[in-house]
Amino acid sequence: MDLANLNSKSNDALLPPLSEKVKVRRATPKDLHDIYQIACSVGKSRKDSKQGFLVDDYSSNPKFYQKYILEKIFELNHFYVAEYYGKLLGFLMAYTKDQWLKYNENWLEDIYWHPEFNLTKINSFVLVDKTAILSHLTGQGIGSKLYQYLTNNLYEDGIMNILAETVISPQPNLASLAFRDKQKYKLVGIRYEDYNNQILTDLIYHKSV
User: What are the residue boundaries of the N-acetyltransferase domain, all occurrences included (predicted)?
Assistant: First the structure.
């Protein structure tokens, strides 16, 4: 299967939307290599605002990041992959409230919440930490397929709130901002974080399940 040519402009009139053939399932340790390659395709030292990006440079330390991904596969309740005929095209990594605050103890206190946001919604939530699609396959509905799978599982678990962050400075993640709008998220807060000796500005979004 030649992923480089999937739904290229020359094939758009001939192929159904790629997302129609994508299957979503929970990540397993066997997926580690493909997940890492996806992360490397959008997590680089040079960021592309229009394409979207992960903040970390995954190719800078392969052993560290592969170990990190493997640990999250075992730990997280909501780590999903999008698969196309056995090949992974993307992944979504989300934390429950307890899991997220285990690593980010003061995260809720660090946010400047919108005055009209109902803070009871943060009593129970998942935080979508990372969503990544192979760089040449973004914008084809694969991320939406992953989110729908997450939403279905959260509804079954009785979790009604999703939170997510998007970086807007020093380099804005325009693709992520567009995706938040597409998924009908609402802007509910802003946060500043120190990352590799620079201050990142993160917008906090909320969506009800």
Answer: 22-209
* Per-domain residue ranges of the chain: 18-133+141-208
Q: How many CB atoms lie within 10 A of CB 10?
A: 8
The pLDDT tens digits for 142-170 are 999 999 999 999 988 889 999 999 999 99
The C-alpha atoms of residue 112 and residue 152 are separated, in whole angstroms, by 29
Q: Do 90 and 81 form a contact (C-beta atoms < 8 A)?
A: yes
- Cα separation, 171 vs 158, in Å, equals 36
Does residue 11 carry a pLDDT above 50? Answer: no
Residue 147 near residue 183 (C-beta atoms within 8 A) = yes
- The residues, ordered by sequence, that sit 6+ positions from 185 with a Cβ below 8 Å of its Cβ are 162, 164, 205, 206, 207
For the whole model, what pTM was predicted? Answer: 0.87
Q: Can you give the pLDDT at residue 10?
A: 36
User: Which residues on neighbouring strands pair with residue 204, listed in sequence order?
Assistant: 165, 189
Q: The domain 18-133+141-208 belongs to what CATH superfamily?
A: Gcn5-related N-acetyltransferase (GNAT) (3.40.630.30)
% helix, strand, coil for the chain, step of 5? 40, 30, 30
Among 179, 148, 205, smallest CA distance to 52 is for 179
Integer angstrom CA distances of residue 62 from 37, 45, 141, 176? 10, 14, 28, 25
